[in-house]
Write a structure and sequence with these properties.
GO molecular function: aspartic-type endopeptidase activity
Helix content: 55-70%
Radius of gyration: 69 Å
CATH superfamily of the domain at 8-126: Acid Proteases
Number of helices: 3
Strand content: 15-25%
CATH architecture of the domain at 8-126: Beta Barrel
Pfam families: Asp_protease_2 (PF13650)
Distance between the termini: 191 Å
Biased composition (Low complexity): 241-251
CATH topology of the domain at 8-126: Cathepsin D, subunit A, domain 1
Region (Disordered): 175-280
InterPro entries: Aspartic_peptidase_AS (IPR001969), Peptidase_A2_cat (IPR001995), Peptidase_aspartic_dom_sf (IPR021109)
Strand order of the largest sheet: 2-5-4-3
């Protein structure tokens, strides 16, 4: 930081970047006063007295970074936590042979690898502390007992609900049976009505037969009327023959008139013959 070399602890589980108050005073960093306490994984409490924002530093000589640091009072280390890892795309790599390695990309595209913990170093623990494990176990046991009680009460309530559903279903089935009986009675009534309708239709058929017989009598009467009409036609033919005789008589009269005209012509000739004699 500036011209001062500072050793920092990379903590992948820390929720903030931390700097001791003595180092902030040495570097003369601008601080914004705040008052809060943070709790460590061991259960101890550390007071926070200020916040230094946008502090520039470089891990490599040509690679500049910036981060916010919470200023802690007491005997603490400078910690680069998860905010630093997220802001600068730092990658955490795990290997059985090499252990835990922290790497981030430099300005020239290469990645700088920092060994965090080696499996050969004593004290490297993969599991959580025993105290936390015991607490989780007791909480799980209490939840399991409560869950078993809830399951038992739920099974009782569910059994009563199922019995109520079965009872209501049985009552609904009885109601359906009663409705089916009523429908059967109604169908029987409909059958009797259909039989009455069949009898009425048969009566109508007999009436139609009577009407058909009456129509046969009417047809015979129509035949008699046709005969009368034929007789009338014969009389009309006789009348026409009489009319033909009258026409013949008229033709005879015309012939007689022609003879009369011939006689008149002869009289005219006689008159013409007489006139010349008179002149003489």
């Amino acid at each position: 930081m500036g011209s001062t070399k500072v050793k920092a602890l990379v903590d992948t589980g820390a929720e903030m970047n931390i700097m001791p108050e003595s180092l902030a005073i040495q570097l003369q960093l601008p601080l914004r006063e705040i008052s809060m306490n943070i709790m460590g994984i061991g259960g101890h409490s550390t007071p926070i007295v200020g916040l230094a924002e946008g502090i520039n530093f470089s891990i490599d000589t040509e690679d500049g970074k910036a981060a916010n640091f919470f200023i802690a009072r007491g005997k603490v280390y400078t910690v680069l936590g998860r905010p630093f890892l997220a802001d600068h795309k730092v990658r955490l790599e795990l290997s059985k042979s090499r252990g835990e390695i922290l790497s981030y990309e430099l300005w020239d595209g290469e990645r700088l690898c920092i060994p965090i913990c080696s499996p050969k170093v004593p004290g490297w623990e993969m599991g959580p502390p025993r105290r936390i494990e015991e607490r989780c176990f007791s909480i799980q046991a209490e939840n399991y007992e409560l869950a078993s009680r809830n399951v038992a009460s739920f099974s009782r309530s569910s059994t009563s609900i199922i019995n109520n559903i079965k009872a209501s279903a049985d009552s609904n089935l009885k109601t359906l049976d009663d409705d089916l009986d009523t429908m059967d009675n109604d169908s029987r009534t409909v059958d009797s009505d259909l039989r009455t309708a069949d009898n009425d239709s048969r009566t109508m058929d007999s009436d139609l037969g009577t009407v058909a017989n009456d129509s046969g009598v009417a047809d015979s009467n129509l035949g008699t009327m046709d005969n009368d009409l034929n007789t009338s036609d014969d009389d009309s033919e006789v009348a026409e023959s009489n009319l033909g005789t009258t026409d013949n008589d008229l033709n005879t009269s015309d012939d007689d008139s022609g003879v009369a005209d011939g006689e008149l012509g002869m009289t005219d000739n006689d008159l013409r013959t007489t006139k010349p004699n008179g002149r003489k």
